[in-house]
Amino acid sequence: MAPFFFKCALGLYLLGSLGYILYIIFQKKPLARLSYGFLALGFIAHSLSIGFWSIQNGYFPVSNLKESLSFFAWAIIGVYLLIQLRFNILVLGSFLSPVASVMMISSSFLPLQAEVVNPLIRNLWLMIHVGTIFIGNGIFAVAFLAGIMYLIQERQIKSKHFGPFYHRLPSLEVLDSLNYNCLILGFPLLTMGMLSGAIFAHYTLGYFWRWDPKEVWSLITWLIYAILLHGRLTTGWRGRRSAMISIIGFTVLIFSFLGLNFLVKGYHSFSAFQVSSPEVWETKPKKTPQN
Amino acid sequence: MGLNLEIVVIGLNHKTAPVEVRERLSGFLNQKGPAHTSLKGQFGLREILFLTTCNRVEIFFTSEEPDQTIQELTTYWSAGILQKPSDPLPGFYIYRAEEAVRHLFRVAASLDSLVIGEPQILGQIKDAYRQAVDHQTTGAILNRLLHKTFSVAKRIRTETGIASHAVSISFAAVELSKKIFQDLSGKKVLLIGAGEMAELAAEHLLNNKVQKIIVANRTLERAMELAKRWHGQAISLEEIPSALVETDIVISSTGASETILFYPEVKTIMKQRRQRPLFFIDIAVPRDIDPKINEIDNVYLYDIDDLEGVVAQNIAERKQEALQAERIIQEESIKFRSWLEGIDVVPTILALRKKMDDIQQGEWKKAGTVLQGLTSEQHKAVEIMTHSIINKVLHYPITFLKEQVPDNHKNEKIDQIQKIFNLNEGMEVE
User: Fold this and answer.
1) Is B183's CB within 8 Å of A240's CB?
2) Scanning A248, B176, B253, B416, which has its CA 20 to 30 A from the CA of B164?
């Protein structure tokens, strides 16, 4: 069932992205509403796909890059569907759905690996760790795109030359408040994700923190967002500066999510969850998983 | 063609005749009471609609002998408005048949206006039509044409961006404010100095529900006067820096010859404001505000040239949208022609039947829950009964329509039936 629903989700996301791209070109609202419908249906199919998979295997499908990309796309679309209800920024979909679609396409092209996974992965704390981190990432993806939209719009207003985006993008205040709301939602999730990861590590591996490269880079990401949140709340950082920092934060986040896997090996890299990886044997559990 | 009537328009507008000529013509038309009544039944005019606005004087009419009517009407008008017979003929334009239809569509969609996309013209056409209806000078063709015109104008307004962007300085300023702040309610405006354009911008902002207007002026008296008008607050020029901490939009238009607000000042103010955005509109010449402040984060400065640039961009954009509007007009005028060619009793009968069927369907739905208890036989019986009631009622108007009469009477009959049963419904705007 899972692969079937995955294909449905991919198809629907592609339709949704196409619709949203046509919407930003022709500015016909029904196109955006239709696309929203496609994305919502795609999200349901995607959730079913992930759900079936998880029930079958007992953990979230995040043990390799293929699955993680798909899970990331799921989080982004889910976050967008909710944010759209609250903020009603249709044009955000035109920026966001292509990003999610590219992730889905990449995921579908990556080879399916024959998987014998480490039993460590079937753990409640790990589920919380993965769930909160990914939803947080989805929210930061929205903050990132809001930041890009803000910079484009601000450039046009400051330079006094209005390009095709001027009328299509929302006002600066709306984009800035979207950025702020993403930050106050995403930051606690990221924090929770890191804490639950530490607890998981403590129960299973015997320590909270190991200065693994992924952990270090995640900490850097967390610090960037922490500084931004602090700046916003105390000295009134907003607008351009906040948009820039959100963009930098997300770039670092993507680097720690994707880039590190290619550059360095640590127990967070996807291959580590497969039994074939010698590292897992090195980091054998000191305690058996709690559930 | 069911009727041998042709639609014609003769007129003058801002492009073809100077304002004196247009004034003289409209004065001449109304000298013997309302223009509709004085021309009714003359020169072979069958249906008449007068449209007089500050930019145009036009008559739309139908006639069976269009060539002759045009000839007589132009001679009559020319004689009426020429001061000396030797004067050159004023710039009348004459459009016939499909071109006349297209002309009316273009006028209503504001493609023929001085400012493309301005909204008043459609209201003026509606008024003109109401007058013509009051004087009973319209018939089946003009009624249909006008209803079609309203729906075409509405379609163009919703499907193209012809009216979407501001083409005046003060509206452009309001539009920009909305691109920065989104919602202007709760925002405060500081007006430095006064002047027609600044006051107009302030009024537009008030219409957009800004919370408060603070007025600063060299003479406190003048400031108080303006503040009273807008239920605002008056301050002196010295108090501006402290006022800037709480305002969001600043309109400056003093007669001062030197800059009154400098970069370092605004920089400090932004810290005190905790970086909340500040929008300066400097419409003074020479400028009041140091242009460099546009470089400060969250500060936006537009001077009069910038705003004029925005207006020019918007006008260019409207012209672009007008091309799309022309395409819609082309399409709709073809549709109207095919209606005109088919104007006959048959479409009217069909429309009548459709109307009755719609009513029947509607009533079925309304009675829905009550009738659910019926067996399928009873259900069928009720349906047959309602159908036969409809058929019996429709028998009389249909026989009336089908009676053999000369063409011009047929026109009147169709019009009567259309009015009695309100068959033009759904084509109207509002």
Assistant:
1) no
2) B253
CA distance A156 to A161: 6
| Measured distance CA(B430)–CA(B410) in Å, rounded | 29
B173 with B281, same domain? Answer: yes
Domain range enclosing B365: 345-420
For B383, other C-beta atoms within 10 Å of its C-beta total: 12
Residues A156, A113: contact at Cβ < 8 Å?
A: no
Rounded Cα–Cα distance for residues A143 and A138 (Å): 9
Report pLDDT for A190.
93
Domain boundary among B92, B127, B159: B159
Based on the fold, state whether residues B131 and B231 are members of the same structural domain: no
Same domain, yes or no: B125 and B214: no
DSSP H or E segment with residue B37: helix B35-39
| B317: in domain | no
B249 and B372, same domain (yes or no): no
Give CA–CA dist A183/A175, Å, rounded: 12
Q: What is the pLDDT of residue A36?
A: 95
The total number of structural domains that make up chain B: 3
Lowest mean pLDDT among A182-191, A209-218, A254-263, B3-12: A254-263
Q: Are residues B284 and B364 in the same domain?
A: no
Q: Is B54 a catalytic residue?
A: yes
Indicate the residue of A171, A239, A241 with minimum beta-carbon distance to B179.
A171
Domain boundaries, chain A: 1-112, 116-291
pLDDT for residue B166: 81
CB contact under 8 A, B183 and A160: no
Nearest to A237 among B275, B309, B310 (CB): B275
Q: Which residues of B touch A243 (CB under 8 A)?
A: none
**Pick the catalytic residue: B54, B316, B334, B420?**
B54
A171/B309 CB distance under 8 A: no
Counting residues of chain B whose pLDDT is more than 70, the rounded percentage is 92
**Angle CA B286–B290–B296, to nearest 5:** 150
Region A223-227 average pLDDT: 95
Evaluate whether residue B328 is within a structural domain.
no
Give the span between the Cα atoms of B373 and A213, in whole angstroms: 73
Residues B187 and B117 in one domain: no
- Per CATH, the number for A116-291 is 1.20.120
The residue among A214, A220, A196, A216 whose CA lies nearest residue A269 is A214
Which of chain B's residues have a Cβ under 8 Å away from the Cβ of A167?
A: 164-165
Q: pLDDT for A40-81, tens place per residue? A: 999 999 999 999 988 888 777 877 788 888 999 999 999 999
pLDDT at residue A118, rounded to an integer: 66
Residue with the bigger pLDDT between A223 and B42: it is A223
Final residue of a structural domain among B256, B280, B308? B308
Would B429 be classed as within a structural domain? no
